[in-house]
Each structure stands twice: as C-alpha cells, then as structure tokens.
C-alpha cells in the first residue's frame, strides 16, 4: 500500500518526510540494511549476511506497494533515507487476520530524535484503519531505548524467547514478544 507523504519535525527541529517505499529505493535499502546491521547488536543479521539482490528487494517492495494490508514506511531528513518502519500481516489465514507485525530500524545517528515514534504512530494508525486488532513485535532484551518507546506507545511484554540470538563471540541474548491491542475507530 502507499500513503501520501507526511511531514513532521523531529526533536532537533529538522524536517522529516515520511513516505511509502518506492521501487527506486531498493538499492539504498540494501545498503541501509548492511549499515544498520553493523551499527547495533539488536538486529537479526550480521552485515555480511545481507545478500539480498536488487531484483529480490524490488520484488519485496513491489509486494508491499501492491498489498492492501501491508506497508513499508521510510523516513528522510534532508533527502537522506534515515529509517524504515514496516507493517506486515502475520499470515493470510482468516484466523490470523486480526494480527499484524511491526518492525522498525533507524540509522543510529537518528535514534532518540522522535522519528521512530512518529513512524510507529503512523504505522499503528494505518493498522487500526485496516481493521487489525493487535500489533505485535519482537525486541532484543537490553534494547532499552526501543523497549521504552514501545511501552510508551502501549505495547506490553507477553513473553520471553530465551537465548533468541547467539553472537559470534558465543554469547546469547533473550528477546521479548510484545503486543498492543488496537482500538478500531
């Protein structure tokens, strides 16, 4: 699905454009994924595991653009792509139609500026309008900034995945399953 672009102002006074992903964003999104996976231990891949081809990324974006129930939202500051927030169906089965998954990541330089909050609020508003009844996400234990943001937006922890990630140094990290009930308007 696509949304009309939205303009907000972040905590630093910068103008931020939020808009739907486009096919021409594919190359930038692959590079973004490689960089963000290296900036933080909270994403699921190592940078060298980002092996998505340009064709695969374009096909992925095309599926989001053409979907009636999914969205890939991008954030831009001064024309530079700084973050993504996705809304995806859990599954196409009728018994799961009330559930959606949300995910977000920003370049570290843009975390804590209110951009992520604005993106999540936009995606949750879209999810509500689409008739989803609950939004779900997974977050790595220790990612206190993200957990705090999710809780401020009404997400609650409902479970823990022990040893969810294993790092190259042999250490493990748990993850939390969080969910927010959406109030359909």
Automatic annotation (TrEMBL):
<protein>
    <submittedName>
        <fullName>L-amino acid N-acyltransferase YncA</fullName>
    </submittedName>
</protein>
<dbReference type="GO" id="GO:0016747">
    <property type="term" value="F:acyltransferase activity, transferring groups other than amino-acyl groups"/>
</dbReference>
<dbReference type="InterPro" id="IPR000182">
    <property type="entry name" value="GNAT_dom"/>
</dbReference>
<keyword id="KW-0012">Acyltransferase</keyword>
<feature type="domain" description="N-acetyltransferase">
    <location>
        <begin position="16"/>
        <end position="183"/>
    </location>
</feature>
<keyword id="KW-0808">Transferase</keyword>
<dbReference type="Pfam" id="PF00583">
    <property type="entry name" value="Acetyltransf_1"/>
</dbReference>
<dbReference type="InterPro" id="IPR016181">
    <property type="entry name" value="Acyl_CoA_acyltransferase"/>
</dbReference>
């Amino acid at each position: 699905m696509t949304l009309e672009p939205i303009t907000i102002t972040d905590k630093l006074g910068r103008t931020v454009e939020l808009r739907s992903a486009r096919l021409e964003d594919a190359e930038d999104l692959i590079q973004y994924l490689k960089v963000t996976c290296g900036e933080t231990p909270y994403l699921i891949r190592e940078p060298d595991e980002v092996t998505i081809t340009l064709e695969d990324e374009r096909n992925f974006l095309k599926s989001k653009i053409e979907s009636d129930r999914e969205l890939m939202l991008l954030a831009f500051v001064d024309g530079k792509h700084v973050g993504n927030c996705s809304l995806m169906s859990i599954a196409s089965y009728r018994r799961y139609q009330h559930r959606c998954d949300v995910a977000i990541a920003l370049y570290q330089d843009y975390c804590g500026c209110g951009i992520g909050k604005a993106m999540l609020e936009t995606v949750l508003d879209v999810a509500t309008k689409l008739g989803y009844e609950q939004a779900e996400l997974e977050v790595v234990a220790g990612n206190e900034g993200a957990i705090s943001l999710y809780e401020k937006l009404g997400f609650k922890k409902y479970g823990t995945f022990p040893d969810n990630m294993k790092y190259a140094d042999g250490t493990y990290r748990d993850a939390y399953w969080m969910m927010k009930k959406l109030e359909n308007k």
